[in-house]
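Consider a protein example.
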Amino acid sequence: MDNGQAMGSRPSDPRAAAEGVGNDLDYRGERLGLPQEGPGSAASLGRRLAAICVDWGLSALIAYGLIADGSVTATNNWTLVVFTLMAMSTVGTVGMTPGKRLLGVRLVHLSGQRLTFPRAVLRTALLALAIPALIWDRDGRGLHDRAVGSVQVRLGGTVAARPPEAAA
């Protein structure tokens, strides 16, 4: 007897296996009630990575020119501090960092409202740790976004995402 027969029938392919456990989502953000495309849809990984690179570069320039007095070693040490302060203050007030604004990404709470300042501080602190941002769910949200109930969406128009409980 084959192991597959002893345990029951095997799915013919990974897609069939995923459908068998209820993973039948068509696009990122569907569980959150976000549109598939256009304004208010979940921001792509490329946009989000490019935005964080812009923000990191801007933070490095600020650290190099204003704090580190031209020292490369001191610049490396201060860049994370500048990045964290910039992200906390800009996400907590206008809902996006300069890099996110440049690339058309906005950070919102699942209710569609702007993140409160304490939530923005917690999200940024978790982002500075790096590990939470590297673990994603099916909607492309990192643990830092899940912890504060936020989602990164494309700019343009209003966003009214449904909480995951309401989407089910």
Residues 4-9, 14-20, 157-161 have pLDDT under 50 and may be disordered. The first helix runs from residue 3 to 7.
